[in-house]
Amino acid sequence: MHEALPSLAFLGAGSMGGAILHGVVASGIPVDGGIIATNRTAEKAATLQGLENVTAVALESEPNGNTDAAASARVILVGVKPYMVPDLLREIAPVLRDDAIVVSLAAGVTLATFAENLGEGARVIRSMPNTPSTVGKGVTGLAAGGAVTADDVALVRRLFELVGAVVEVPEEKIDALSTISGSGPAYVFLLIEELTKAAIAKGFDETDARLMAEQTFIGATALLAASGEEPAELRRRVTSPKGTTERAIAVLQDANLDDVFTRATDAALARAKEMAAGK
Description:
Layout: E1 8-11, H1 15-27, E2 35-39, H2 42-46, E3 54-58, H3 65-72, E4 75-78, H4 85-92, E5 101-104, H5 111-118, E6 123-128, E7 138-144, H6 150-160, E8 164-168, H7 174-182, H8 184-201, H9 206-227, H10 231-238, H11 244-254, H12 257-276
Parallel strand pairs: 1-2, 1-4, 2-3, 4-5, 5-6, 7-8
Antiparallel strand pairs: 6-7
C-alpha cells in the first residue's frame, strides 16, 4: 500500500491543476484530510463533483473558499492565471499552516513573487508541468525555494510522479526546461502535421495519411519506452545501409535539424525572458 498523501488544496483547478487532481484520484493513494478544489464558477466546480475524497468549491457561492481551503491543507497548489497569483497569495498568507507547502502551477511567476506575498519563510516550490500530464505521461520541472526541506521536495515530487516524470532544477533553469518539455509537445504535433501533409502529397487520403503519421509517432515512442535503447540506436536499426531510410535521413540531416531545434528553443527562451520583464 502506498504511503498516504497529506491534505491537498487546489486553488484554481484548471487544466493543469485538474490533471494532477485526477492523477491523485486515479492512483487510489489515500489522502489524509481529503482534497479541496476551488473554481470560480459552479459550472466548473460541477465537473469535479463526485470524484472520491474531493470537495469542489465554487467561489461565486463561497467567497471565502480559497482561504478556507488554504487554511486546512498541508500542500496548496496555486493554479490560477499568473496575473491573479499575487492577489491570491495575499489573501491566503494569513491562514497558512506552519507546515504548509505552496506549489506554483503558474508559468512565469517567480519564487521571489511568492516570497514577497507570503513572507520569506514560506515553503514554496515552483512547478512547470506539460500537457501530457493530463494523460499521465507528463514531464514536470520542480524548482524549490530556500525555505523548502528535502522532505518537502520528496512529497511534491511524489505528487507529480502520479502524472508522469519529474526533473528537479534550480529556478534559473525552469524557463530553459519549459522550452524542451513545456513547449515540446507542440514541436511533436508540428512534425506529425508535416508528415501527414507529405503523405497526402503522395496521394493518400487524409484519413489514411493521418493514421500513418500519427500511429508511427505513437508506435515509435512506445518502442523507445519499451526497449530501453537510445534513440540513436533505434534509428540505426531502421536505417539499413544504402537503403531508402538512409537516403531520407541524409536529407533531414542536410537540413541542419540540430541547428533548427537549437534556434527554436533559444527563441522560446528569449520570449520567456521578455515576458518576465513585462514585455
